[in-house]
Amino acid sequence: MSRPFSTEPAVRKTPLDADERARAEANFADLVVAELGAKGSFRVSADTPEMVELFQGVARTVGERLGRPVVSYANGRYLVIAFDQPRS
Prior knowledge:
The chain is α+β, with helices and mostly antiparallel strands and 88 residues long.
C-alpha cells in the first residue's frame, strides 16, 4: 500500500541573527553553569552546525564565567559540555 503524497511544507529553520545569538548564548550559559555545578556535565541536542557553534560559544562563556577550563564535544547528534580533566 503506498502512502499518500504529503502537502505539508518542509520545516525551514531560520538562522539566528547576531542579537538573537548573543541573547541565546547568555541565557544558555546560565543554564549550563547550573547543570555543571549539579551534574558536572550538560548535554543538548545539537544536530546542525549552527547549534554546535552556538553551544561551543556557550562553553567558552561558561569557562570564562567560572574561571575553569570547560570542554565541549559533539557527535553530530548531541553536544556535551563538561569541566576539562586535569592532565597528569
